[in-house]
Amino acid sequence: MNPSEIEKLANLARLKINEETIEQTAKSITEVLSLVDQLKAAETEGASPMAHPLDAVQRMRADVVSEANQREAFQKIAPATENGLYLVPKVID
Amino acid sequence: MEWETVIGLEVHVQLATQTKIFSGSSIAFGAEPNTQACAIDLAMPGTLPVANEQAFRYATMFGLAVDAEIGKRSVFERKNYFYPDLPKGYQTTQLEEPIVGPGNVDILLSSGEQKRVRIHHAHLEEDAGKSVHEGASLGFSQAMSGIDLNRAGTPLIEVVTEPDMRNAEEAVAFARKLHSIVTSLGICDGEMSQGSMRFDVNISVRLKGGELGTRTETKNLNSFRFMERCIEQEVERQIEVLEEGGTITQETRLYDGDTHTARAMRSKEEANDYRYFPCPDLLPVILDDDYIEQVRSTLPELPDARQKRFEETYSLSAYDAGTLSADAAVASYFEATAKASGDAKLAANWLMGELSAKLNAEEIAIGGSKVSAEHLAGLIARIKDQTISNKIAKQVFEAMWNGEGDADSIIDAKGLKQVSDSGALEKMVDEVMSNNPSQVDNYRKADEKKRPKMLGFFVGQIMKASNGQANPQQLNEILKNKLDAE
Fold first, then answer.
1. Best residue in B15, B25, B145, B277 to probe A by mutation, most A CBs within 10 Å?
2. Which of B44, B169, B170, B298 has the most CB atoms within 10 Å of its CB?
3. What is the pLDDT of residues B69-108, one digit of tens each?
4. Main-chain dihedrals φ then ψ at residue B200, nearest 5 degrees
């Protein structure tokens, strides 16, 4: 991993990474990846990719409304609300 | 240079379930902001999704309707990106193993040609919330955006086509057909203005037979008319850029229905920037053959089959049958009218003529028609038995639309009954002839070939005198006899 890849990943994950520590972060992540690389040695011929570690199947629920309106409780812990809306710094793309 | 347009569509179809795909919150339209957003929808720590069976059933119905293979094992993945209307920081969607595999939809073009559009796949996913930017009118600072999470978690299927369409007409025909299929299945309410179906259009142009050009994607079109205009404009723009020696930038564009213009939104993120991975909170969904067959047995009549039946049962043209069968509600209104009146052809004409003109003018769906199928059938019956002429029928229809009652009571109340009494008609003819001696003279001197046209003058006078109530066939006959007799 080079520093520019780290910067890109940090941006995608919305993480702030210190200029001075980028080199160090790149080195650490590269080390982690080399550990993961060892897994590549495993024989996977004929094994289908696993979507989930549990050998189980998704349960379903019936299509019935089960949730009551709790807006007041949720908005009590929100930093800012108005007219029933949650407020966030303006975003327009 | 001859250019060829290549169009592929991604269509978001909102499923007509009662609740969200992973929570028991209602998805009813028009609720107060955030009153239908529970702890799961808000991504509160510790919450876990539970899948809604109805969403899978609807997706399966769609797959069967487009002749696709149903993914017996489907897996949910996380598509990671940050946006305030997505509290979890990822959208739960499907990528590698979608619920609906390759299928196809046949469309009919105005040339009469039938064309097959291939479906690449369709997958289940959740919708995001909505951002509101009009702070001034809602009492918050212009520096802020308001977030309504009622829509977050609403079940969607995203239908992805192959790039099989070559112009706006084909794309719109496909979109209409898809609308017809999902509303006939009852898996989507089809209310485009409420966002129940949203179209993303991928457009590129290339020299005929050449390699595929760079495409742009215009997002969130929610009307067939916008879609047509948007495609025409974008094709024109791309050709202009290329002919001037420029290159097309791969970008996402946003269409504004008010100004009918599109603008670049953001350069398209690479697929792998979303860092998809299987969602650890959801296990694979397994649908067995019994389940799929059980769903198949519940499929209602689909538009293609209904069109064929209309052609055969009611002797309608392919065009009329196609128009009347596309929408399930229109189809059932037509059938009710045809059966009650005993005249399918007249029922078809009235539905596609007067009635649809009224519905369009007042922008209401057939379900809200102010003239019921029963009342329209009553009117048609009176045309058939010659109680009233077609012209008077339009007057009666207008009165029915304004809530003045059924055809019979309006005809009675307004005295609109057609005059078919030959004695009375003869009297009218005599009167008009004696009042217009010079016209009679001209007619009698005129060439045989010119006479039918000249007859119109007398018919017009009598219709005027009788308020349009003279039986036109009978009147013509009497007039001709008297005028030709000398």
1. B145
2. B170
3. 999 998 999 999 888 999 999 999 999 899 999 999 999 8
4. -110, 130
Residue by residue, DSSP assigns B52-102 as EHHHHHHHHHHHHHTT--B-SEE--EEEE---TT-TTSEEEE-SSS-SB-S
* pLDDT tens-place string over residues A27-55: 999 999 999 999 888 888 888 877 788 88
Q: Which residue has the higher pLDDT, A54 or B172?
A: B172
Hey, of B86, B94, B144, which one would you mutate to test binding to chain A, going by the most A CBs within 10 A of its CB?
A: B144
Q: What is the DSSP letter of B18?
A: S
Distance CA B313, CA B66 (A): 25
The predicted pLDDT at position B31 comes to: 95
Whether residue B270 has pLDDT greater than 60: no
Q: Give the residue among B126, B101, B102 at the shortest CA–CA distance from B19.
A: B126
Chain A closest-CA separation from residue B241 CA (Å):
24
Q: Is the pLDDT of residue B267 over 60?
A: no
What radius of gyration do chain A's Cα atoms show? 23
Widest distance between CA atoms in chain A: 58
- What does the block give as tokens for B369? 């028609």
pLDDT in tens, B241-254: 999 999 998 888 88
Q: Are B24 and A61 in contact (CB under 8 A)?
A: yes
DSSP B256-282: ETTTTEEEEEEEPPPGGGG--EE-TTS
Ordered by start, the domain boundaries in chain B are 3-294, 301-414, 422-485
What is the rounded CA–CA span in Å between residue B71 and residue B97?
A: 7
B284 vs A52, A64, A80: nearest CB: A52
Say if B184 is an interface residue toward chain A (CB within 8 Å): no
- Pairing of β A60-61 and β B51-52: parallel
By the CB < 8 Å criterion, does A83 face chain B?
Answer: yes
Kindly state the average pLDDT of the residues A4-21: 86
Higher pLDDT, B26 or B461: B26
Task: Indicate the fold that domain B422-485 takes in CATH.
Answer: Arc Repressor Mutant, subunit A (1.10.10)
Q: Give the model's pLDDT for residue B231.
A: 95
Q: Which residues of B3-39 are buried (b: 16+ CB within 10 A; e: fewer)?
A: eebbbbbbbbbbbbbebbbbbbbbbeeebebbbbbbb
A51 to B97: CB separation less than 8 angstroms, yes or no: yes
A1-40: CATH topology is Histone, subunit A (1.10.20)
From the list B291, B290, B279, the residue with the least C-alpha distance to B75 is B279
Residue A19, amino acid: E
A38 touches chain B (CB under 8 A): no
**Taking the CB of residue B54, how many other CB atoms lie within 10 A of it?**
21
The domain ranges of chain A are 1-40
The span from the CA of A51 to the CA of B294, in Å, is 27
> Of B40, B80, B143, which has the smallest distance from its Cβ to A90's Cβ?
B143
Nearest-by-CA chain A residue for B77: A51
pLDDT, residue B461, reads: 85
pLDDT in the model for residue B268: 47
